[in-house]
Amino acid sequence: MKQMSKSSSPERNRPPPPALAKAMLALQMQQLGEAEQLASQVLKSDRSNTLAAEILGRALLAQNRLDEAIVHLAKFARRTDEPSIETLLAGMLATVGRRDEALDHLRRAVARRPHYIPAFVELALQLRKSGQFDEAMTVTESGLTFEPQSVDLQLALGYVLADCNERIRAQAVFAKVHAAEPTHHDALLALAAAVIWDGDYGRAADLYRRALAIKPLDDTRIRLGKCLLELRQREEAEALFRTATHGLSKLAAHAVIAMVSVSHGRIFLQPSATLDFLRVRNN
Fold first, then answer.
1. What is the end-to-end Cα distance of the chain in Å, rounded?
2. Which residue intervals correspond to the TPR repeats (predicted)?
């Protein structure tokens, strides 16, 4: 789950009341029912409380209640001008395939004053996903004029450049961000993917290891495993695939694709052999 983002709402500039502070903590601790209940209570007495609305939306999303989250945030967005809510709502709308609506919300959000940088980042992302690379570039560059030191915007610029096949420029952007923020998780992942373009699997593996030390994500384990296969470090790579898939998870397909797609990978003649391989030493 993404962290709570900064907002221009007045309540963000002062300590939250006890109920909201508890709701924020509950959300961070993945106590989602409690976060939902506390945020709902605040909204009953203060229907315009943006922070409470965001906490409730995130709590619903984390419980896989996406439709409820969309209804809640859409209702709140209709009676406020808060860009953080429109940005969060837009991401959810895009997830369910309502990208045109998402883009409408995001274009409104980037027009708000003061500027809300996460809206620029999300708009660039959704434009990239819809193949509108020129507008994505314009949005990113516009955001950078307002906040040139924004790591998220600089990464967004690198991603757009990569989409436009300007790999040298993209790699330079990612390297610059990593140099300025050596422990930034997303910068590590972006630069790792970029150096693979040059076939530098050793450096990519090192960057993925650093990213794993910050956030031990299964997807990153698979990326690292793929690099290690290219480096012919098969035993460690396959152990990573097994750890990442936990035997049979939604990432199993990604692990199999990684193993069979690299030059020094592994070929499975039967689906059952693949599943048996991933289960080994996982139980």
1. 28
2. 185-218
Two tokens, residue 110: 């980037």
Distances in whole angstroms, Cα of residue 136 to Cα of each of 140, 187, 207, 212, 278: 6, 19, 27, 29, 40
CB of 212 closer than 8 Å to CB of 199: no
33-56 b/e with 16+ CB inside 10 Å = b?
Answer: ebbbbbbeebbeeeeebbbbbbbb
Using left for φ > 0, alpha for ψ between -120 and 50, and beta otherwise, residue 150 falls in beta
Could you tell me how many residues make up the chain? 283
Whether the model clears a pTM of 0.85, i.e. scores above it, the answer is no
Q: What is the DSSP letter of 13?
A: G
Query: 1-9+16-80: which CATH topology?
Result: 1.25.40
In the prediction, which pLDDT does 283 show?
A: 45
Predicted local confidence at residue 269, as pLDDT: 41
DSSP state of 10: G
Cα 175 to Cα 29: distance, rounded to the nearest angstrom: 33
Sorted by sequence, the CB contacts under 8 Å of residue 247 that are 6+ apart come out as: 278, 279, 282, 283
Report, in this order, helix, strand and coil percent for the chain, each rounded to 5: 70, 0, 30
CB 230 within 8 Å of CB 262: yes
The DSSP 8-state label assigned to residue 248 in this structure reads S
**DSSP per-residue string spanning 36-97:** HHHHHHHHHH-TT-HHHHHHHHHHHHHTT-HHHHHHHHHHHHHT---HHHHHHHHHHHHHTT
C-alpha dihedral sign at 113, 11, 70, 97: positive
Kindly tell me the sign of the dihedral angle through the C-alpha atoms of 139, 144, 147, 153.
positive
Model pLDDT for residues 146-176, shown as the tens digit of each residue: 999 999 999 999 999 999 999 999 999 999 9
Q: Give domain limits for the chain.
A: 1-9+16-80, 217-283
